């Protein structure tokens, strides 16, 4: 039987989807490609905003229309937050919350009944299963795999529903993580993203002999052949000198010069209300340290517009900090009230129209800064990993979107999925940089 797994939301969800795929394959299922008709459809949902909830319901309804004979399964964070509501959707046959995700495959098999006969695969076939997931499974564009190093969060920011749906912080043992990265890289995956809810808290629950995040990253680099390793998201206080030293040390040429540092607001008052653990000055200082230690890096962020009590002065403070820091990109969200968070009960709720206006202003400024950042790299050479086995789209090590210019953009079959290639960046085309093959003598930027 074929199972199709669709993923919404963060790279942590992507890592969970990859784990689901392995477990389905262990039970005898085949992981379906998007264009195939599945016997089982699984949506791994997000619930970080009300928009994410709406997208989940839309996707489940669409799956029911497209695959009327499939078993439609809702799983993940939306189901964890609103299990009864998800289970009651007419499009859903089975709802599995995060706390029961280890039972997902067995619950599916039980619902299928005699139509499916499970079997146990040879445990020595782990590499083959990983290779199949790289070729057909829920990898990001089939070139980047996400490996979950921890999940859960003990910080409990005022606006955030994640601690409710992911629970307390739990770290994955180092030996298991190294084995996962090694399997993926040996199966042909050119880039692995280390992901989690609070990456900097890695190991805090594993006892006094636990590793720091920096030491974990060092061991992954030393003990695996992964060509490219990316760290998904860090809080400002988690960016230590030990960690930054890896980019010029053991990780040189393999550790991606891209840092995602969620800011949320440039107002110190709002940051305190959000229960963030930094202020605007310390955030800006962290950005300065990163850029000094890792030249040519890209720094991206998350921003929330219209948090309860946010004034025009607070909004202006965010714009001012953006002008100071000048991010390569920003994910901007109007504040979304989430039942179960403390901010849900705060007074001073900002009108939806004002939240939307402020979000639009933040996006406009972020777009200007992003264009400015991309222009800095015109005339330089960067390594690009091509997606879907062609030069139609790819990402540089520092997270710039690239396509090959000229007639090369029609060459859709000459490259194997995930091939890395040094590319001369020649021109800007909207949010994309146009590239050309680098010639002998041209080297990738450090």
Give your account of this protein's structure.
The chain is an alpha/beta fold. It has four domains: 2-125, 3-Layer(aba) Sandwich (Rossmann fold), CATH 3.40.50; 143-256, 2-Layer Sandwich (Transcription Regulator spoIIAA), CATH 3.30.750.210; 268-275 and 287-376, 2-Layer Sandwich (Transcription Regulator spoIIAA); 381-437, no CATH class. The protein has helices at 11-26, 50-66, 77-81, 83-87, 104-112, 126-136, 162-166, 174-186, 213-223, 241-248, 268-274, 280-293, 312-325, 352-375, and strands at residues 2-7, 30-31, 40-45, 71-76, 94-97, 144-148, 150-151, 170-171, 191-195, 228-231, 258-260, 298-305, 329-334, 381-386, 394-396, 401-404, 420-429, 432-437. α9 (213-223) runs parallel beside α10 (241-248) and α13 runs parallel beside α14. The longest helix is centred in the C-terminal third of the chain and has 24 residues, at 352-375. Residues 408-413 have low confidence and may be disordered.
Strand content: 15-25%
Text of the CATH class of the largest domain = Alpha Beta
> Number of helical segments?
14
> Percentage of helical residues?
25-40%
CATH topology of the largest domain: Rossmann fold
The low-confidence runs, each spanning 5 or more residues with pLDDT under 50, are 408-413
**Biggest sheet details:** 5 strands, parallel
Strand order of the largest sheet: 2-1-3-4-5
By CATH, the superfamily of the largest domain comes out as Methylthiotransferase, N-terminal domain
How many domains in all?
A: 4
Number of strands: 18
Distance between the termini: 47 Å
> Oligomeric status of the shown chains?
single chain
What's the rounded overall pLDDT mean?
90
């Amino acid at each position: 039987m074929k199972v199709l797994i669709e993923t919404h939301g963060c790279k942590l969800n992507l890592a969970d989807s990859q784990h689901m795929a392995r477990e389905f394959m262990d039970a005898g299922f085949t992981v379906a490609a998007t264009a195939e008709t599945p016997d089982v459809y699984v949506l791994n949902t997000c619930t970080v905003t009300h928009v994410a909830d709406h997208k989940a319901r839309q996707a489940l309804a669409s799956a029911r229309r497209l695959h009327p004979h499939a078993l439609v399964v809702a799983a993940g964070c939306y189901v964890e937050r609103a299990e009864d509501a998800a289970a009651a959707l007419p499009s859903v046959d089975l709802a599995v919350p995060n706390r029961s995700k280890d039972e997902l495959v067995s619950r599916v098999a039980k619902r299928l009944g005699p139509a499916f006969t499970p079997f146990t695969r040879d445990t020595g076939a782990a590499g083959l299963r990983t290779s199949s997931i790289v070729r057909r499974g829920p990898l990001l564009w089939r070139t980047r795999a996400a490996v979950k190093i921890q999940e859960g969060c003990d910080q409990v920011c005022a606006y955030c529903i994640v601690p409710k749906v992911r629970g307390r912080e739990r770290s994955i043992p180092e030996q298991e993580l190294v084995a996962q990265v090694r399997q993926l890289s040996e199966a042909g995956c050119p880039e692995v993203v280390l992901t989690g809810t609070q990456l900097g808290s890695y190991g805090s629950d594993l006892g006094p002999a636990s590793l720091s995040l920096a030491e974990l990253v060092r061991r992954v680099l030393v003990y695996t052949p992964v060509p490219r390793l990316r760290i998904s998201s860090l809080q400002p206080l988690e960016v230590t000198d030990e960690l930054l030293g890896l980019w010029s040390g053991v990780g040189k040429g393999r550790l991606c010069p891209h840092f995602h540092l969620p800011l949320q607001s440039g107002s110190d008052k709002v940051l305190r209300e959000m229960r963030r653990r930094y202020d605007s000055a310390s955030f800006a200082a962290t950005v300065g340290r990163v850029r000094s230690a890792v030249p040519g890096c890209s720094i991206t962020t998350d921003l929330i517009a219209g948090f309860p009590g946010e004034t025009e002065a607070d909004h202006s403070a965010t714009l001012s900090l953006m002008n100071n820091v000048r991010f390569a990109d920003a994910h901007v969200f109007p504040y979304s009230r989430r039942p179960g968070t403390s901010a849900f009960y705060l007074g001073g709720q900002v009108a939806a129209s004002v939240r939307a206006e402020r979000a639009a202003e933040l996006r406009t400024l972020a777009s200007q800064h992003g264009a400015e950042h991309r222009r800095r790299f015109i005339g330089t050479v960067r390594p690009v990993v091509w997606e879907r086995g062609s030069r139609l789209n790819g990402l540089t090590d520092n997270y710039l979107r690239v396509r090959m210019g000229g007639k090369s953009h029609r060459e859709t079959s000459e490259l194997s999925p995930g091939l890395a290639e040094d590319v001369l960046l020649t021109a800007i085309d909207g949010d994309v940089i146009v590239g050309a093959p680098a010639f002998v003598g041209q080297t990738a930027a450090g």
